[in-house]
Amino acid sequence: MHLSANEGIEGVRFAVTGGQGFVGAALCLELLRRGAREVRSLDLRASSSWSQQLLDAGVRTIQGDIRNKDDVGRAFRGVDCVFHLASYGMSGKEMVQTGRSDEVNINGTCNVLDACHEQGVRRLVYVSTYNVVFGGKPIVNGNEALPYFPIEDHVDAYGRSKSVAEQLVLKSNGRPAKSDKSTRLYTCAIRPAAIYGPGEERHLPRILSLAKLGLAFFKIGGPDVKTDWLYIDNLVLALILASMGLLDDIPDRKGTPVAAGQAYFICDGSPCNTFEFIIKPLFQSLGYSVPQVRLDTSVALAISRMFLFISTLFYPWLDSKWMPEPLILPAEVYKVGVTHYFSFLKAREELGYVPMVRPHEGLAATISYWQERKRRELDGPTIFTWLAVTIGMLAVFSAACLPPVGPLKWVLDIHLFVFRSMLVIRLVLVIAIALHFGEAVYAWFLAKKVDPRNATGWFWQTFALGFFSLRYLLKRARG
């Protein structure tokens, strides 16, 4: 396909579902940069970390739910092309919420298709997933000829519901508009690899939060396991090329648009081991411990099923903020522990897709982003240090101040064995509190110079942990 860089974009109205997210926001901004007449973002969220950028660029942000037909119809009125990115259940606790995944990914997509039909939308690009064909069995250099993975065999609701939705989208290709039978809706699906880049919200934040807590213990799968990754700029390029591939008014092009009714795998084109390419250099650059112990995929699956069972028990409370994310779930084990990578040859030949950012460039930009983000945040020790110091301080306080009843008698006996008298125990408590308070005050004054936005946080963290917190601030001050 040989078209100008902005064919089908200049002077055109677009709608992007999920436009407040990482990919959606990047796509909205790029469409406007290329000369789109109007870009509308439909998102359940009223705001996100991208909101100000979208507002400044002139994106029309609409708060709405794709599960609500009226919201979708309102957003699509007068639009020529829709990018359907909104989804649910990709990672973490969301993966366990099967009902909502079906509501958003299947019912929501039906609403999108109906709104396109009613509003006379001409082009629909659907963002799908590798998981429509991958379900845990190795795939080497796969292509679009692969059959859909059996619906009943999916280990998560996300893969299953996205597969159903993609098939609905592709089967709707060529559907006439409600008010004008000569206007047809042309559809295609983009199947992206795992997405990364500065600001990515799904994969890396969860991995790095575990690393910060000291809970990233294991590598999963062998060193020869390879998977695909996709840098954000490359995905945005592929989405725009897909929209061009649905144009039906190109001179010298006869018949159905080249991308109509088609699906395309999109990746950076460099299969790699996730732990070696992404996790190891990222952890090292941020000063986190790199996992050394390697878990066999079968063992990791057994552990992930345990977390799935526990999460299922707490199903009614999964939306609660106090409910932690499961450490890992079965679909995530397959994602990093089983080889599966695909060719983007079809996208290159039919859409003209060639990755514009190389993997090492994308990784360098991602690392720089996380290094800067870490410099802006409160740093500190692992959860094990928190537990050790907190339990230790509570134990000394219990021995010094509380009546020795029940288990507290054992606590007192241990302290008397170590410190010999109640007087010494109480002196130890007073000295410990005084030291922590003094270190906290020093941390507050130092943070006012080197990290003023987090000065209060440094005070309280150092008051709780003492030098175990202060040493991180001193390191920041030195460097």
UniProtKB/TrEMBL annotation:
| Domain of life of the organism encoding this protein | Eukaryota
**Spans through the membrane:** 383-402, 423-445, 457-474
Ranges for the 3-beta hydroxysteroid dehydrogenase/isomerase domain? 15-293
Q: What does the UniProt keyword field contain?
A: Membrane, NAD, Oxidoreductase, Transmembrane, Transmembrane helix
Pfam families attached to this UniProt entry: 3Beta_HSD, TMEM254
Keyword Heme assigned: no
- Specify the protein name: 3-beta hydroxysteroid dehydrogenase/isomerase domain-containing protein
Recorded source organism is Sorghum bicolor (Sorghum)
Q: What is the lineage of its organism?
A: Eukaryota, Viridiplantae, Streptophyta, Embryophyta, Tracheophyta
